[in-house]
Structures are given as structure tokens and as C-alpha cells.
Amino acid sequence: xxRPVRLLPLLVLILPGCAQWERPGATPQMRDAALAxxxxxxxxxxxxxxxxxxxxxxxxxxxxxxxxGDGDKRRCRETQGYWRPASYGLRDQNAPxxxxxxxDCMRQDGWVLK
Length: 114
What we know:
With 114 residues, this protein is α+β, with helices and mostly antiparallel strands. Helix content is 39%, strand content 29%. It contains 3 helices and 8 strands. The strands form 4 sheets. It has a two-stranded antiparallel ribbon. It has a two-stranded antiparallel sheet with strand order 2-7. Strands 3-6 form a two-stranded antiparallel sheet. α1 packs across α3 (95-108). The longest helix has 18 residues, at 28-45.
């Protein structure tokens, strides 16, 4: 149940125009510099660690039968079922840690996410 809460900072940071870091009297250049510093510190503290994860478990896809028309004009088309293999991809398991480090670093410097 805590995993979605951990992803919230990432979603807020990657959605352009929805929210940004602000601090009274700070310029966008100051914000960018602080964010770059915090991101670098987070990267050094929690390097990417990609793990292979299943993205789709695959399974049997049943065939279909589609019929059109009535009576003598009724025509049906059938498709065969087939086995769809599982799909795999990579996920950086340290991404949530880096996001938390960046957020903590920015807040400690007086930035507020608005």
C-alpha cells in the first residue's frame, strides 16, 4: 500500500506544467541549479539498478467467431486461439529511492513543491 505513495513524487516531477519547486525570491536558474545538485547527490547515493520484471504474464488468447447477416446470407468468420508468451522488461528498482532523496534535498534547502 505504501508503493503508490512513494511514486507520487515521481509523478509530480515528471508531469510538465502541473507542479514545480518554488522558493520565495528564487529565480528559475536557482531552482534548476538546486535541482541538478540534488539529482546528482541522489544518483551518487542510489545508482540505477535495473532488474528484469515480467510486464505481461502472457497466456492463452481464445479464438473468436464473428457472424454477420441472417438466414442464408449469414456468414461467420472464425479465428484460431493462440498462446501468447510472457513479456519482460527492465525496471530501475532504485528510482523511488532517488526520487525520495531529491525531494528531501530540495525541501531541506527551503524549496516547496507547488
